[in-house]
What we know:
The chain has a three-stranded antiparallel sheet, with helices on one face. The chain has a single domain (3-171), classed as Gamma-glutamyl cyclotransferase-like (Hypothetical upf0131 protein ytfp, Roll), CATH 3.10.490.10. It has five helices and seven strands. The protein is globular. The chain has helices at residues 3-7, 22-29, 84-90, 140-152, 157-172, and strands at 10-15, 37-54, 59-80, 95-96, 101-102, 106-115, 118-128. The protein has 183 residues and is an alpha+beta fold.
Amino acid sequence: MNKLISTEKKFYYFAYGSCMCPVDLKRTFAENTYPYVIGPGKLKGYRIGFYRYSEKRKCGVLDVVKDPNSTVEGVLYNLPLRLRDRLDEREGVKFDFIKEIHCGVYRPETVEVYSRGELYSGVSTYVVVDKSSQELAPNDWYFNVVLRGAVTCGLSEEYCWKLFEHMYNLQHQKRPKNILAMA
Length: 183
């Protein structure tokens, strides 16, 4: 084991979207992230939703919303603290110190995550700041990277199917015709 990796200060991070895929996360950090995977995790009291449109990805992207009757599955990482700023940058975290509010795309939230029979406290995840009033469909690329991460990191088969169905249904829902186009 690399001595640097074993002595670095770390933080727990719960990923539920594209960051579940260690290959996609590697693009952000320019280093292999699979060694930092603890395993599949469960975030109780939340549900997923596609409440943000990403200009970069040109589609709806995942968010978590408090819901006492739901659980979100994802991937629990134990990342080196030196990677925190790049993760915040990837998630569009911005804080207005004068107004003391989050004004970026996502904001960090501290949660508890169950993984491999243990409860992890003080885990960081990200929540959309300005949510859309309705869910927005993911594109095929985002759909595939999210599922690849879910399967690669061992999320339950039942959850993977629910995730697949949710994204598929968003992509194939009937959309109202543009009234202006009919004029």
